Amino acid sequence: MPVRPPIAGLDLPGVYLLRSMEDSFAVHTHLEAQAPRSAVIIGGGYIGLEMADALTHRGLSVTVVEHGASVLKNFDTSLGQHVAAELRRHGVQVVSGVGIEDIVQEGAQLRVGGSEGFSTSTDLVLVGVGVQPVTDLAQSAGVTLGVRNAIRVSRAMETNVPNTYAAGDCVETWHHLLGRPTYLPLGTTAHKQGRIAGENAVGGCREFAGTLGTQVVKVFELAAARTGLRDTQAVEAGFDPLTVESTYWDHKVYYPGAHELRIRVTGDRKTGRLLGAQMLGYWHGEVAKRIDVFATALFQGMCIDDLNALDLSYTPPLSSPWDPVQMSAQAWVKQNR
Amino acid sequence: MPVRPPIAGLDLPGVYLLRSMEDSFAVHTHLEAQAPRSAVIIGGGYIGLEMADALTHRGLSVTVVEHGASVLKNFDTSLGQHVAAELRRHGVQVVSGVGIEDIVQEGAQLRVGGSEGFSTSTDLVLVGVGVQPVTDLAQSAGVTLGVRNAIRVSRAMETNVPNTYAAGDCVETWHHLLGRPTYLPLGTTAHKQGRIAGENAVGGCREFAGTLGTQVVKVFELAAARTGLRDTQAVEAGFDPLTVESTYWDHKVYYPGAHELRIRVTGDRKTGRLLGAQMLGYWHGEVAKRIDVFATALFQGMCIDDLNALDLSYTPPLSSPWDPVQMSAQAWVKQNR
User: Is the pTM value of this prediction over 0.95?
Assistant: First the structure.
């Protein structure tokens, strides 16, 4: 279920917490019936930014308020800042470093107030600040909970109650690189876990290989994608990380429509092992599946230098003879010398 | 240099063999100066189809004549037929199973004649039927030649003449899966070989990991991509191949702009090992970098079923929670039971 932040006025009409299909139908009905002209979105994560994109396309004037220093907090700030610029370029007001404190009815509008003297009037408020597992029923049935009160499961997706399996946003997620359970509620992971839980529940013998935290989000004309560890996570996991950012064209610049593609590669200084990657580029620049080349290499424990041996596809409208994935690997290796 | 097929009249004005920068400048000058209204392209490989796309965009009426049964012969026919349909949808005449025999001047035009009674008049003829290595100089210097008279090189890119290295379209190419040299002149491979030859020439110690035959070509609004072995090659290499074709949306169909994505997966029946993949879809449907997920998995020797464990990126405008790569893997596994 959605995290319900400590903000006064969350139950006022025109305020919606984003999580379920019902939430989205309710927002849609509100948009149709009330024709709001402005919206404040609390939370600059991928759900908040997707809503900012969608509502701007519907003609609303949108403000995104993010508690942290930058939107898309699970990307490094240098990329988050470009995402913020893309939002502003499309007329979205981006406010960061502000915690919302209260929402009050003010005539036909809502007044949203927060730290740093933030105050604005709006027609609609959407709240997307994360989700938490709903595990009361499981707990009352004797199921052990783990990270962030998610259901503790084995790699076979079995709970501590024999023959009882669990999967999805209510369970812990094994991290392929960290080698420990995390809480990472994503649809891709839920599908994989569900398949394994189902197969094992009928007598199968599968183990969940674990997540790499791979994600992509489209924000207006940009796609931001990531996989694996960032510096701070890598240090926690005992690595000595180096992250190198470099920028390329997403295809040969002599072919029309080339856009900049920023890649941040994280690897271990000592072993040269790939630990993670982040990418930001034009949403038709094959960002999503380029991060998947990194994700596949990461899954297989490849070293960054070995990415240069991969036989990746090239045609001038879509890539370069050295794919940007490989050029970013070369930049990392050069800087690690 | 370009293969010069046994066709009478190749030296007539208005007939161009495609290979070098000079060839392309000459064609460009001809287009500007003569303003031809029609063109016959001999050869339905990727160069021929890229020219068909480009000349159609310039307003010429284009005919592609292919000797074989289908265009894009290094793809399976079921995909080649969709590419032919895409060419026809954009007004290109596609003639297959015809070998061109002669070109004769006929007033201001060229008459192109071939087998099966083929005969047509045109303003411009382009010939793109492959390339061959130019190795006379090397041979006269005592360098041993190999496959198709390309220069024989070790995995270190060294010729039989000590301290003499060679790379690019003039050399044999080691095949990562076949475990033997082939002739596969591609820009991606040339770049990798050149880097290794250069590094070793100055005292380095690298080996070329080999090609997988990864390729992508854009033809109008389609991209066709492939990597690894097709059935016939797999049989030659001692495998027991099964190829399964399946079709998906390239992203969630509820998000605007979804297109069909056809995937053919080839694997070994006994071991379940991935041997190759071919893909055809909308050129902005991330076809090129999706084939690269297969290429990365192939390079690492993965089994098809294990593709389902990969943590690939998902957002509704760009993929599905199970990426089409994974759904095609599931289709293969199901059919191999």
Answer: yes
